[in-house]
Amino acid sequence: MDLKDSISNNFLDGTFASHIERKQSSPPSVIVIGGGISGISAAHILHNASFKVILLESRDRIGGRIHTDYSFGCPVDMGASWLHGVCNENPLAPLIRGLGLTLYRTSGDNSVLYDHDLESYALFDMDGRQVPQQMVIEVGEAFKRILKETEKVRDEHSDDMSVLQAISIVLDRHPELRQEGLAHEVLQWYICRMEAWFAVDADMISLKSWDQENVLSGGHGLMVQGYLPVIKALAKDIDIRLNHRVIKISNGRSKVMVTVEDGRQFIADAAIITVPLGVLKRNLIDFEPKLPDWKVSAISDLGVGNENKIALHFNNVFWPNLELLGVVAPTSYSCGYFLNLHKATGHPVLVYMAAGRFAYDLEKLSDESVLNFVMLQLRKMFPHASEPVQYLVSRWGTDPNSFGCYSYDVVGKPEDVYDRLRAPLGNLFFAGEAVSMEHQGSVHGAYSAGVMAAGNCRRHLMERLGSLGMIQLISARDEVLEATVPLQISRI
Ligand SMILES: Cc1cc2nc3c(=O)[nH]c(=O)nc-3n(C[C@H](O)[C@H](O)[C@H](O)COP(=O)(O)OP(=O)(O)OC[C@H]3O[C@@H](n4cnc5c(N)ncnc54)[C@H](O)[C@@H]3O)c2cc1C
Fold first, then answer.
1. Residue 265: count of CB within 10 angstroms of its CB
2. What are 386-400's pLDDT values in tens digits?
3. Exposed end of the chain (fewer CB within 10 Å): N or C?
4. Which amino acids are annotated as binding site, given as ranges?
5. What atom in ligand 1 is closest to the CA of residue 445?
6. How many CB atoms lie within 10 A of CB 155?
7. pTM of the entire structure?
8. Is the C-beta atom of 81 inside 6 A of ligand 1?
9. Quick one: which H or E segment has residue 462?
């Protein structure tokens, strides 16, 4: 590219940086770092507002922690798969219904413990015997009472503690809530489900924060066609550069210069950073000037959990028509469960889900060993289970593009951690699921964070660069209101 091309491109090679003045008539330029839903939504908004936008993504694909795999001949989400909050207030609802995507609702508003209605799962013990449904229901009730009692423990202590610690205090106080034998294993399974929601073990979940999330109404719906169509729709017409791993961000008074792994440099009026918190924690991006201490401490004050999925594709369906098939065990670490995609999508696929320390431990094994382990679990329930014809193993914890699955509140989390994470630094704006105070760890939270960062960046540049009459400002909200088709939900 010659100098002339570089200038007209507006994203300039660093060597020419000192020669460049932004032409009064040219639109402001923004570099978005990270091509997950947060970065893509930010780029989409700014692109529609006639800003010059370039998106730099380290992987060879877009979507980030949304990763719909099609190698089974059907969509399988190896990252996010549920829309949490199947309601019109969900910021993603208009887009999803506009695209005509179907949701399979796995739970209603009053679902027991987060995700699933009791009627649609079966638990088995280590010897493959099904746990009587009455016991599953009774222990579920006991678990709810235990959690209710932990609220008193919370009120009594000014310092935060882990949910596990609080449960143990409650069980000391209320021996009648303790469970023995098989019932104890079922209680561990409920704890395992809770750990899966936060993607960390119960000894790391904050008692003060665990139930403070503003959960949207409408229950939880699986994206039957996968999440990728949402990403593709938002990514349309955006200048996306794959295999561009950002290693350095220099934040000047009027320009931001971004350097990628192979040494190429891009310059724009502002940048929006949406890389995962796990990546920021590893200091894989060099900031110049260095990030202030309050930002560095915010990055370390929020946790990142881990969850992995092992998807199994079979020739035939040998399991019952239920949504979840669980194995109970003496510890929550040893409990496990399979999501039955056949019920939701009609495809013969089971997805084993592992969270917390266990998810990290699985990543120490080869794919083949992981498969062997998961098949052992499955054969506890169904001794004659056939071998899968294909399988997939995720490794979100060690993937250098994510280093974890999503953020969680650590025990003793400072109140203002989200404000500090989100706060811009001059021409640098921060988005991504981890900066979403209300809906952290979710796709819709990441989306909203991207929309918000784009809005803040746009306002900042308009103030800084003067009035931009030529810019046609189209907000996400305007587009959203056009979609009037209802959400398509099965199993209501
Ligand atoms: C296993 C799993 C299950 C989940 N289940 C659900 C669910 O059911 N429902 C739900 O709502 N949410 C779920 N989530 C969470 C949800 O996927 C995330 O909150 C959301 O997708 C995050 O989007 P993001 O844009 O903030 O980050 P990401 O999607 O991670 O995007 C960040 C992008 O930055 C890129 N990047 C990293 N480093 C660099 C670099 N140096 N330079 C350039 N690019 C870089 C990454 O490759 C990535 O594409 C799940 C996540 C996982 C992993």
1. 17
2. 999 999 999 999 999
3. C
4. 38, 246, 352
5. 19
6. 8
7. 0.92
8. yes
9. helix 443-465
